[in-house]
Amino acid sequence: MAGAGTTLSARHESLPLARPFRISRGVKTAAEVVTVAIGRDGKVGRGEGVPYPRYGESVESALAAIEAQKGPIEAGASRHDLLDLMPAGAARNALDCALWDLEARLTGRSVFATLGLAEPLAPIATALTIGLDTPDAMRDAARELARAPLVKVKVDSSDPAAQLRAVREAAPDPRLIVDPNESWSMKEVEGLQELMIDLRVDLLEQPLPAGEDRALDGFASAIPIAADESIHTASDLDNLASGYGVVNVKLDKAGGLTGALQLIDQARERELGIMIGCMISSSLSIAPALALAADSAFADLDGPLWLMEDRSDGVSCDRGMLHRPCEGFWGAAN
């Protein structure tokens, strides 16, 4: 949908968090995002990416990657062209989602209608995250989420049993996702099986470092295990350890909605479950992910809820039910 008269601009935004977000790899106090605007014929499509240091990305590298595509985009490169022009990552995600948004506004057909989704999108249950902390602090945080349908617990290898018991004690009802962020060894994976069964854990997400997860081959876990850092795009599926039964699809890893759709289609052919995740980000990152979440086994899209201030007209959340942005925010037919 791009072509003559097309313009591309990108910038960095630092979005402060309302409170620190702790995982096993460190603490985040702001979301560092890159936003893209692609304009044509009086319409503007927007996209957002979150460069992630864990994957060798920075704001500077993402902006440089986007700038390198300015010529092709302004000359008419499409979403599908981007798959060959640049690698998957936050930069391609921002461009891809902006092109989806622009296409909807130019054609008068929303992204959601193009994907065969009923509109308006129904609210979805999203995981609400409890950051890594002392068991007592995690118990207090869990108490505030006791009525949510789905809770995600960040743990490490220091005392995960105490962390999990504290959360379940304060929040006995929600479904639980446990996320060690690559901090466990097989000792924890095997040794905590019985406890996770007792605590009714629904999903264990990326317990082992991505480079060491062949240890999961042939392991029959009582708790389904999801790959996160171990899978980015559809091309990673052939090398995925057999112990994984679920893949966490994130737009920033897949390089946009186009790449994420490819990954989901091929993962389902392999009978893998789908989780739709996100980075700490604004609603501009979450709106495209909502197009994937309605038909997923798990949705973890609470990124904007950590911000001190989200973008106006973005998503809202009521007791763990995520409501779509206001009409016209992203992917709309206007």
From TrEMBL:
EC number: 5.1.1.-
Record: active site: 154, 250
Entry GO MF terms: metal ion binding; racemase and epimerase activity, acting on amino acids and derivatives
SUPFAM superfamilies: Enolase C-terminal domain-like, Enolase N-terminal domain-like
Gene3D superfamilies in the record: Enolase-like C-terminal domain (3.20.20.120), Enolase-like, N-terminal domain (3.30.390.10)
InterPro entries, A to Z: DgoD-like, Dipeptide_epimerase, Enolase-like_C_sf, Enolase-like_N, Enolase_C-like, Mandelate_racemase_C, Mandelate_racemase_N_dom
CDD domains documented for this protein: L-Ala-DL-Glu_epimerase
UniProt family annotation: Belongs to the mandelate racemase/muconate lactonizing enzyme family.
Domain of life: Bacteria
Cofactor(s) the protein requires to work: Mg(2+)
Keyword Zinc-finger: no
Cofactor note: Binds 1 Mg(2+) ion per subunit.
Binding site for Mg(2+): 179, 205, 228
PANTHER family hit by this protein: D-GALACTONATE DEHYDRATASE-RELATED, ENOLASE SUPERFAMILY MEMBER DDB_G0284701
Keywords, sorted A to Z: Isomerase, Magnesium, Metal-binding
This protein's name: Dipeptide epimerase
Every Mandelate racemase/muconate lactonizing enzyme C-terminal domain range: 135-226
